[in-house]
Design brief:
- The chain is mostly helical.
- The chain has a single domain, classed as Up-down Bundle (Rhopdopsin 7-helix transmembrane proteins), CATH 1.20.1070.
- Helices cover about 70% and strands about 0% of the residues.
- Pfam families: DUF998 (PF06197).
Amino acid sequence: MTYWIGAVSAVTFIVVFLLDGWTRRAYSSIRHPVSALALGQRGWVQTANFIICGIGIAVGAAGILVSGVSFLLGAILGIFGLSLVLSGIFRMDPMLSYPEGAPAGIPQEHSRHHALHDSAGAGVFLSLPAAAVVAAFMHPDLVWQVLSAVMAVYLIVCFILFDKAWTGASARLGLVQRAFIIPGWIWLGALFLALAQLT
């Protein structure tokens, strides 16, 4: 059951931020990061998305720990889930012209909330590739070993590109971030379901 909670949470996270972003005035899924959806009058939607889905993924991670499938994988995914929760608790600062009236670029100085959000984001974007690396070694099925290894390399490349896009305040920042999130979260949801079949 815990694996299913983790899988549903991973997919739900994607569905919610995609729908919310498509229906937001002045929000661009190509330019703006997912975290910007936590700003403005409807910010509570993405805040709840971070927290609820983060808890769900942490529950799935706890299932991995309890089952004894892989302590390391369960611990890393637990960090991933909790980092999502913290990303919801601590919001990023308004920037990149969102919400309307926000600075056009990325300010040099940030609030404490933004700094904590960045730290939580680092936990998210570093733990998922790490989980893929571990899965490539621990999963008994060769197909999943190869898939996880490929996903690990892909996520690392996307993380590097996202860091570069963020530093340069790229007009395609949101698109690059989504190139990491969508395949990564889908892989995670599928992994939970694959592990459910092993136990």
